[in-house]
Every structure is written in structure tokens, then in C-alpha cells.
């Protein structure tokens, strides 16, 4: 073994340092830097695409990402040009839940509070939400998926709820939502064992709504989102709120029913006018503007 310079470790025999331009030695810290973890938002044709991007850690979420996700959800909820939200993960996975290093460094009660805040923001979003799931959907990733209205998964996706592997107490709101969707026995099966289940098993449990081939996931999610975006937003908003209330309380309250029955509904006039004109309705357009659209297209409708 050769002499050690300045307290540095000797270089193992046979290993040569990598050199980059001008003869500089490239150390490990300069090699292939890990891309920053982000949550991106892109709106296209009334569909908001929110993408969890931390591929180096299977799209695990850190505190900064949670804050960004909450901000994006608040933004799209208010945007009039957004009708549907699609949540997905970059690369081969949906989301591996919370970054374990942050769980070890901070009080678990605080971490749970922050994550549940984002989960509830997603669940209460007034617009339809779709989770497009491929690869691993684990822990907090499953919580986010379950908070969406629809869950479309590739046939190769897998799901796991893993607090029993870490000694964490699963949040009560997440338990409530999971029980409403898949029932108490399946909920216990997933949490007690913390074992991963396949997409076909998740479909059997009712954890996901659709299962598709891997290569068809993005196009299927986009097709369903596009279809929803063409439907009456008032009908969808009412159906979402009443369905969620029925899931929680076992029924839709008379108060909520009366509220929607008495609420202004411009979509009804649009839908009826389109039906009479034998045209596709264009919701979000005034009846006067629709009259122009239908008169222009009437000759094309046999």
C-alpha cells in the first residue's frame, strides 16, 4: 500500500481517477447529480396534469414537495380553465409515500399533520380528480391515490400500506376513506400485513376503478379526463359532493339536495338547447353563443 497523503484514504490498486476537461479529476460529488425533486403542474385543454417527480427515490415526497402539491391543488381548484385533474408520477412509479429520512428526523405527529392536510385538500377538491398509477404506489402514495375520485392503474402496478412496518399509526381520516372504498376486512388485510398487492387484486378489492396495459395508461387517463371535461360541470360538481356525502353519512341529506336543486344551473339550458339542435353540448358557453355554434353546425348534423 502506498503512502497516504494528507490523511486521505489510499486509492485502491488498479482504480484510476476519472478525468474531465483540462485534466481535472472528477470526484464522486461531481458525478451525475441527482435531479431536484419537484411537483410540476401543466394545464392543457381543461385538464390539469400534476406530476410527482422524485424518480431517484421512487417519487417519495419530502416536505417541500408536499407544500408545492398543496399549492398546486389550491390553484387548480380556483382556475376556471381547469375541469379535471390528473395526478401521476414521473418515470416508472407513482409514489413511494413519505421520504423516510424526514420521518426519522422530525416528530411523527407533525409529519402526519402535514401529509393529511395535503391528502384532505386533494379529497375535497371540487373538481374531478384521477390518479394514473404505474409501478409502486406505497404508503402515502396510496393515501393520495385513494383521495382521488378515480384510480386508473397499469396491470403491473402494485399497492401497499406500510405503517405496520414502521410503527406508525395510520391517520384516522385515511382509515375512514379506505374503509368506505374497500370495506373493513380488506382495509385490515392491507394494514395488518403491510404486504404489496397486485393491480388485479386491487381491482378485486375495489381499490382502483380501471386496470389497463402499461402502454395504455396515459392515453386511457387522458381519454377519461377529456370525456369528463366535455360533460356538464354543474352536474359533475353536484354528483361529486352528493356521492361523497352519501359515502360518509350513508345518504344524501335533504339540505344538500335542496341546495343543488335551487342553485343556478346554466348547464341545463345548454344541454337542452344542444339536444334540440341535435348537436354536442358545449358547456361553459352562453345560450346565445351556443345558438351561433348550433346554427353553424346544423347542416352537418343529419
Give an overview in words.
It contains 13 helices and 11 strands. It has helices at residues 63-78, 100-105, 108-123, 140-147, 163-166, 172-182, 184-193, 199-205, 217-229, 233-249, 254-262, 266-276, 287-297; strands spanning 18-20, 24-26, 38-44, 47-53, 84-89, 129-133, 136-138, 150-154, 158-160, 197-198, 210-212. The strands form 3 sheets. A 6-stranded mixed sheet has the order 3-4-5-6-8-11, with helices on both faces. The chain has a 3-stranded mixed sheet with strand order 7-9-10. The chain is of the alpha/beta class.
Element order, helices and strands? EEEEHEHHEEHEEHHHEHEHHHHH
Strand order of the largest sheet: 3-4-5-6-8-11
Mean pLDDT: 85
As a whole number of angstroms, the C-alpha radius of gyration is 25 Å
Helix content: 40-55%
State which percent range the strand residues make up: 15-25%
